[in-house]
């Protein structure tokens, strides 16, 4: 999807897929096997309700409340459920905490496992071969593509989501944020910082 | 299976190319692909593991050229025909030609919120205690089944350390093929990059996998 020299090919391919999916949906609808209203409700859920703001609230609470951070480290599924987040692709959550010594990065080399309950639907790059192939062998070059250059002294831990555990990275709290409430803190937490391909934004940075 | 899905450590697949302010969907059909995949999954006719195996069984050239929603749709066609809900002729013609199998459950709009909130937990109790303990050195097995497995090739026959005992879960290698859930203990096993990637590996890097008990042996 990123090959800008090849737009025409992709446009054709997209219209092929449009027709293919339309045919499938038509057959299933004629057979009474699907309810178009269910499809609309699923799409609406992930466009408007379940997204990375959920995870950002988890991170902001962990930054603000040591007891919550401790709970999150011991039983992330329950701690996250206390904020009302859970269910599909968040059934078995694990939170991994960045520290001054170690940066965490999450990948699924085998498919597209991703913590939907806190981050919503995964971006295209997360599911695509370049990220899945390179994150485990050369994470520093991957992070540089995201504009993140870590010092060589920083350890990198890559979590390959090969089972049903879903990982959220708790980024380090930016400096100078002591006075901020959780809502303001959550605004500093990007989706990428919870995958590990970014850091939380410094105070005063634009959205 | 050693299919195109097993990507860890492959070279030559290009830049990650993150897209700034990426939209949730890049075309209308992707929305329908998401909804169709979840709606048909709700039939209860196949497991998540079977659907993953259907995706990784796509021809490698197809798999690598496809976006993930395309992979989902192609695998969904496989699953729907395998379980006789639709026929190949119906997919080709884009209309109903015959009455097919009937699912246990049809997802209606009013059910969506509850179904998504419930999810599909796959932790299951096992009678036996875990064989391995935190801190123990283990070696992953060297096997190459043509069937489904969640032990990636780069992590086979490698020595690492058990970092956590994560609970007991449905065993996908069996469950993908209708052989039952047969739950096992799952462990987070962490490897030094040098063990996995050898010469030239990043000395600051460690990589972990989540491994079912039968993937592991005492080191």
UniProtKB/TrEMBL annotation, chain A:
Keywords recorded for this protein, A-Z: Lyase, Metal-binding
Known catalytic reactions: an aliphatic primary amide = an aliphatic nitrile + H2O
Alphabetical list of InterPro entries matching this protein: CN_Hdrase_a/SCN_Hdrase_g_sf (IPR036648), CN_Hdrtase_a/SCN_Hdrlase_g (IPR004232), CN_Hdrtase_asu/SCN_Hdrlase_gsu (IPR023900), Nitrile_hydratase_asu (IPR018141)
GO MF annotation: an example: nitrile hydratase activity
EC numbers: 4.2.1.84
Name of one Pfam family that matches: NHase_alpha
Domain Nitrile hydratase alpha/Thiocyanate hydrolase gamma: 16-197
Statement: the UniProt record of this protein carries the keyword Metal-binding: yes
Family: Belongs to the nitrile hydratase subunit alpha family.
Protein name as it appears in the record: nitrile hydratase
Organism of derivation: Rhizobium herbae
Lineage: Bacteria, Pseudomonadati, Pseudomonadota, Alphaproteobacteria, Hyphomicrobiales
Gene name, Swiss-Prot/TrEMBL: nthA
UniProtKB/TrEMBL annotation, chain B:
Domain Nitrile hydratase beta subunit: 121-217
Nitrile hydratase beta subunit-like N-terminal domain mapped to chain residues: 1-103
Keyword flag Lyase: yes
EC number assigned by the record: 4.2.1.84
Organism: Rhizobium herbae
Pfam families hit by this protein: NHase_beta_C, NHase_beta_N
Descriptive protein name: Nitrile hydratase subunit beta
Keywords, sorted A to Z: Lyase
Coiled coil (residue ranges): none
Gene3D superfamilies the UniProt entry points to: 2.30.30.50, Nitrile hydratase, beta subunit
GO molecular function: nitrile hydratase activity
Family the UniProt entry places it in: Belongs to the nitrile hydratase subunit beta family.
InterPro entries: CN_hydtase_beta-like_N, CN_hydtase_beta_C, CN_hydtase_beta_dom_C, Elect_transpt_acc-like_dom_sf, Nitrile_hydratase_bsu
Function: NHase catalyzes the hydration of various nitrile compounds to the corresponding amides.
Catalytic function, reaction form: an aliphatic primary amide = an aliphatic nitrile + H2O
Gene designation: nthB
């Amino acid at each position: 999807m990123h090959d800008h020299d090849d737009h025409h090919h992709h446009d054709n391919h997209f219209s092929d897929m449009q027709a293919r999916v339309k045919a499938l949906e038509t057959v299933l609808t004629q057979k009474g096997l699907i309810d178009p209203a269910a499809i609309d409700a699923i799409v609406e859920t992930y466009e408007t309700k379940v997204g990375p703001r959920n995870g950002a609230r988890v991170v902001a609470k962990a930054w603000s409340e040591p007891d919550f951070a401790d709970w999150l480290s011991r039983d992330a599924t329950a701690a996250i459920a206390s904020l009302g987040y859970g269910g599909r692709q968040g059934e078995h959550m694990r939170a991994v905490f960045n520290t001054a010594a170690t940066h965490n990065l999450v990948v699924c080399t085998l498919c597209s496992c991703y913590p939907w309950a806190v981050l919503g639907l995964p971006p295209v790059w997360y599911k695509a071969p370049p990220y899945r192939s390179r994150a485990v062998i050369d994470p520093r070059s991957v992070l540089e593509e995201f504009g993140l250059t870590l010092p060589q002294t920083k350890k990198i831990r890559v979590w390959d989501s090969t089972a049903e555990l879903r990982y959220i990275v708790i980024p380090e709290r930016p400096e100078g944020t002591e006075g901020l409430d959780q809502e303001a803190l959550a605004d500093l937490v990007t989706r990428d910082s919870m995958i590990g391909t970014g850091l939380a934004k410094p105070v005063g940075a634009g959205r | 299976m050693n299919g195109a899905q097993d990507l860890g450590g492959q070279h030559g697949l290009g830049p990650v190319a993150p897209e700034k302010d990426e939209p949730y969907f890049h075309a209308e059909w992707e929305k329908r692909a998401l909804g169709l995949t979840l709606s048909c999954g709700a039939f209860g006719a196949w497991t998540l593991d079977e659907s993953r195996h259907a995706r990784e069984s796509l021809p490698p050239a197809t798999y690598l050229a496809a976006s993930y929603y395309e992979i989902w749709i192609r695998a969904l066609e496989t699953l729907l025909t395998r379980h006789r809900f639709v026929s190949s002729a119906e997919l080709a013609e884009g209309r109903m030609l015959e009455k097919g199998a009937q699912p246990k459950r049809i997802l209606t709009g009013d059910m969506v919120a509850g179904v998504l909130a419930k999810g599909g937990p796959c932790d299951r109790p096992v009678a036996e205690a875990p064989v391995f303990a935190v801190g123990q050195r283990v070696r992953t097995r060297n096997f190459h089944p043509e069937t489904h497995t969640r032990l990636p090739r780069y992590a086979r026959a490698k020595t690492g350390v058990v970092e956590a005992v994560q609970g007991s879960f449905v065993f996908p290698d069996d469950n993908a093929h209708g052989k039952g859930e047969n739950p096992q203990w799952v462990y987070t096993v962490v490897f030094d990059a040098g063990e996995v990637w050898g010469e030239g590996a990043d000395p600051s890097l460690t990589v972990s996998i989540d491994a079912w008990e039968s993937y592991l042996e005492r080191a």
